[in-house]
Specification:
The structure holds two protein chains of two kinds. Chain A is mainly α. Chain A has helices spanning about 5-20, 40-45, 50-75, 80-90, 90-100, 105-130, 135-160, 180-200, 200-210, 210-215, 220-245, 250-265, 265-290, 295-315, 320-350, 360-365, 370-385, 400-420, 430-435, 440-450, 465-470, and strands at about 355-360, 385-390, 395, 475-480, 480. Helices cover about 70% and strands about 5% of the residues of chain A. Chain B has ten helices and ten strands. Classes of the chains: A mainly alpha, B alpha/beta.
Amino acid sequence: MTAPTAKPSFFLLALLTFFFLTPLAHAAKISDITEADFLDRTLRFFSFTDPSLRYALAGSMLLGVACGLMGTFLVVRKLALMSDALSHAVLPGVALGFLWTMTKNPLAIFVGATVAGLLGAATAQAITSTTKHKEDAALGFVLAGFFAVGVCLLTMIQNLPGGNKSGLDKFMFGQAAAMGREDVLLLAGVVVVCGAAIGLFYKEFLVTSFDPAFARSSGLRVQIFHYALILMLAFAIVASLQAVGVVLVAAMLVIPASAAFLLTDRLPRMLVLASVFGMLSGALGAFFSFVGRNLPTGPVMVLTASAAFALALFLAPRHGILAKWWRHRTRTRRVQRENTLKAIYRVLEDEGFRSESVSLRELAEHRRETLEHSEAAITTLEHHGLATREGADFALTPAGWKRACEIVRNHRLWELYLNHAAKIPADHVHDEAEEIEHILGEENVRQLEKRLNYARRDPHGKLIPGLEDIHGTSPRFLSGHAVGFGPPRP
Amino acid sequence: MNPERPTESAVPLEVHDVSVAYHKKLVLYGVDLSVPAGRLVGIIGPNGAGKSTLIKAIMGIMPLSSGWVKVFGKPYAKNCQRVGYVPQRESVDWDFPVNVMDVVLMGRYGHLGLGRRPSAKDREIARASLEKVNMLPFAQRQIGNLSGGQQQRVFLARALAQESDLYLMDEPFVGVDASTEAAIVTLLRDLKERGKTVLVVHHDLATAREYFDMLMLLNMRLLAFGPTEEVFTPENLQNTYGGRLNILSEVVQIVGETKR
């Protein structure tokens, strides 16, 4: 097992060093920036000359990593709702942290908010374990109740005399531009702590998340790892508040991790992908809130993350909508081709396999369709090398003959099986067999044949093509003329 | 295994007067057991009889409300490395982002220290365990893309990788195909031949007699425990599955309500 979680955090530390080693100029607020033009502001963004911009960008990216790491565990443990409850529950802590120092001291607010968040988690836990209420109701109560207290406290603070209250309202929706050096250091600390804990105790977090009972049986203290995750989750939420805000931080936990979940089946990769998505969303959020002037960072970040999720939903190689649609389309087309092959076989059979070729008109009459439809179906078969045209007529290629025999055999074997083994009347079995014939594999067919004592006729008295017919792929010759592949040998 | 361990003298599993309550309601009541080494033991009883609860209580996954458990002469926590566990298949999320190998390696975690990663030797043991249940070709497969029988065999391989002396299996035969059922039976006999003790929660009376050396008939109380031919009698089964315990369960219900 590797330590993939360490990689993004190291990369970020390097990035951070870059931001901090650049000489600290006079701290300009993003709002001081005067370039009116979108292009000028973009250029200014990428020049990284404003310290406040550097803080905003570094902070937003670190936040993305912290949320991606913790969000991955939330998503795989089905605790997504917990992130929502916890992020709203921290608000009273933010207010109390402010009241403690009467300044916007990040450390005081961090401590207050973490305590409030843990109190919220404990309240939810207490409600589920002592009453008949389940977790959803408990979390709903904690979310709304704590949030209401927080909003009341913040309103009271706004009306208090004195103190530097500016920016306190930004905790609701986040403003990356309001981040200072301490905020970024705090986030860096959280990323290092979470990354190190997950890297060091990866196997413990994995087994306690996947199968807690088994983890317990092999001597692990499951509760400790659960609480450690909740504590780290609280850290990630609280450190992210300044940039995304209370209302939307849960989205940064859940969305990048959910997008990553669509793209991979391994936890280490999911952790890396979720961190990268979070980091990109953070960077783009900071960028747009910079160039777009008064756009709030939080919502922009969340929109970016949602866009990543939507992309993953469509394009994921296995679980994506596009891949599923493509698989469905491929399957439908194969079934259509096989049905044409089967119809051709039936036409040949009706004529007693006297001739190898079939005319379009015969096929159209058999399938009760227009000549155009038959024409198109034969063209498709030609493209796949299953049929070949001879003027107005056409014939099956050896590959087409083989597949046609297989489909007819599957169909008739299944009819016989339903009729014999499941005692379904002979006139009820056709529709079932129409579906099953395309699905049966070699293995199933062998079992069916054995089960049916290698019967040669289906419930309607028609011959079932056997192995010899399928592999006897060379046309037979009678008095110098090719006469097709020959009827099934009874 | 390790020759210094006092294996021979100590009984693999001793359960004394164990009661377990779930939400203040008793589900197991005064169970006494002593399971000798090298036996295949079937735990039989109706739904809700406390079969899974018993093995979870043995491993400390559920707290005991009274009594004690000893594994090879010591409390469970001291000897948990010598116990292998196969939980019910429905107890985990099969969409979890892990592959077959990841799950089987979890069987080695109990032998590794906190924060230590599985070594090449652990991987070798995991591979050998997968080989035994014919699942090695699926090692890199995500666990959700397996059939029910294959998922069950992954859990068995994980237990084998634990290299334990006592195995506790919760309904390993539920929802598996005939070939997996046969494979599990072979595996159980193999474990027995190697001197291991295996307790299996089982729901099918018809096969119980054939699969196990000893049976444990459970319905809140331990109703019978002993060699299969002695225990598997109409009277015992009637006691276990019939309604004779109605009075006891009613009283327990009332006791639970007064405590609330």
